[in-house]
Write a structure and sequence with these properties.
two-stranded antiparallel ribbon; Glutaredoxin; globular
Amino acid sequence: MRTSRLPACLLLLCLAGCSREKPKMPDISLPTLDGSRSVSVAGCPTEKCLTVSVAPWCGNCRTHSKTFQDLRSDLTAKGIATRFIVGMDRLDDVRAYAAEFGPDTLLDPDGLFPLTGVPSFTVSNATGTVLNTARGVPSFVKNEKALAWYLGLD
């Protein structure tokens, strides 16, 4: 009878992956569009939060802006907070696009919130632990219900 063993380095990688802590939301604060306050993205006022990051120059973001807004309405009814971060562009352009999402929209013209692409979705909990991330909007997403399902928030 023959037995196989995992190479030591592979075993260590498996163990390291199993013991890793989940990532946390960055400890940064961003101003709101209306200038009334600065909001920490590390925390969440509800059990779960959805952070949607978009940019004024992003065609996909613009195409789906209404879907993102409708998703916020649906999630609010379920007790899930949604916040929008508009950034990665000139402040005037960031402000103009942020106006579509409301006065509580967070402004990030300097790109302080770490992203690898837009639109970007981050689901986190009240302690700031990241539960899920997604980039882009798949072609099958035609409405807020499909987007909620895609993000695991249905």
